[in-house]
Amino acid sequence: MSPPAAPALTELLNAWEQGDRDALGSVVRHVNGELLRMAMSRLRGADTPSLAAGDLLNEALLKLMGSPPQWRDRSHFFATVSVTMRSIMVDHARARAADKRGGQWQRVTYTLADVGEESNAADLLTLDALLTRLEAVDARAFEVLQLTYFGGLAREEIATLLELSVPTIDRELRFARAWLSRQLQRDLEA
């Protein structure tokens, strides 16, 4: 007699949403490797020595534990976790920027590495501000861009998730990229 098959991720997500406390643990065990790879990918090049992949993943899951959204499927779950990770990284960058402006006075020895870290935090905050403006201009383009770059979803997955056609996703993505490019150019010229 073979062991019972493990429940599908969507079933576990639905159970978690319905209040099954054990379901979250099962979800994490089911996709832990993928989630850690996602966290490592988000941190790659971010130069955040005080934020490890495991910490980023744990913070994201803690944020989601309070009130899990209505999960549509596996893609929706991964997109939501990824977007939550982005939010945590932005909050972390804001906190570091505040600390550098004297939020917590400390004696510091500056090195070239410190300059790079501050620059990366500033870049992340600038990108976050531009994305917030894009969301106000075109919420759907913002969502497509976010799911592409921060959610790591393929165009087909985004089309399914948003119930749109792939050509519509392509148009929204082209618009979002062009809009961001124009905004960045304006900021550089100012």
Structural summary, described in words:
The chain is mainly alpha-helical. The chain has one domain (9-189). It has helices at 9-17, 21-43, 53-66, 74-103, 112-137, 139-149, 155-162, 166-189. Helix 1 (9-17) crosses helix 2 (21-43), helix 2 packs across helix 4 (74-103) and helix 6 crosses helix 8. The chain is globular and about 55 Å long.
Radius of gyration: 19 Å
Ranges with pLDDT <50 over ≥5 residues?
1-5, 103-118
Total beta strands? 0
Main β-sheet description = none
Mean pLDDT: 78
How much strand content do the residues show? under 5%
Distance N to C terminus: 71 Å
Instruction: Please provide the ordered H/E string of secondary-structure elements.
Output: HHHHHHHH
Query: How does the helix and strand content classify structurally?
Result: mainly alpha
Shape: globular
Percent helix range:
over 70%
What number of structural domains do the residues give? Answer: 1
Number of helices: 8
